[in-house]
Every structure is written in structure tokens, then in C-alpha cells.
Amino acid sequence: QVQLVESGGGLVQAGESLRLSCAASGSIFSINAMGWYRQAPGKQRELVATVTSGGSTNYADSVKGRFTASRDNTKNTVYLQMNSLKPEDTAVYYCKADLTRSRCIGYCRSEYWGQGTQVTVSS
User: Fold this and answer.
1) Among 91, 99, 81, residue whose Cα is nearest residue 121
2) pLDDT, tens digit (0-9, with 9 covering 90-100), for 95-123
């Protein structure tokens, strides 16, 4: 009913840039916050950045000044521009959306996750 699809991952060298996209589709009435998380091998999933419906952003300290999150509400899409990438940014990046479903009875607000996209930064 609701699907999040990420794209834009890949292999880059340290100092280079990547732009991730995540598009939400399906029975969606409204989207509240959208965000990016990442999980490196052997580590827990961690917050990277979030964007509210009004465009307010929040970032992990490790990415402040290098990553920029934004969203296009007309396309139900969130982006993550990643500059000055470091090897420690290597992880699977996941998109999450806090949204309210349409054509729903009762409590219709849920969180959905994308399938993840691999980002690998070589030194």
C-alpha cells in the first residue's frame, strides 16, 4: 500500500559527493517527517538527518556541514546531498517516512522504511 524507494547510492572516493533520493508512493494522505538513517557493518542503525513537512532539518553531528537533507512535498520525495564523503560514511542508507495513510479506517499513522541503498567511500 505504501512504498519507499531509494536511489543514488554507489562507490565513490573520499572527498567526492553523492545524492540520494527516496520517493514515497501508494495510499498516502500526508507525510510528516522524512529522514535518512544508516547502518554500517557490525553497528546499529543511526540517524543521519530528518526533514519535517515544513522543511526544518536535524542532523547527526558527524554529518553537519557536509550533508544536506531536503524534500519535495509535491513529489513525496526526500533527498540527501552528501559532500566531502569520508570512508566512515560507508553504510547502507535507509529512508524513513512518518506518514498518514489514505483510504484507512481508525489509526492511520505509521512509519515506513525503504529497502536501503549502499554507499561505499574508498580512501
Assistant:
1) 91
2) 999 999 998 888 899 999 999 999 999 99
Residue 76: all three cell numbers together? 513525496
Which are the contacts of 34, defined by CB distance < 8 A and separation ≥ 6?
Answer: 22, 24, 50, 51, 71, 78, 95, 96, 97, 98
* pLDDT category of residue 68 using cuts at 50, 70 and 90: very high
DSSP output for 35-49: EEEEE-TTS--EEEE
Of 12, 81, 3, 4, residue with least CA distance to 48: 81
Measured in whole angstroms, the distance separating CA 63 from the mean position of its chain's CA atoms is: 13
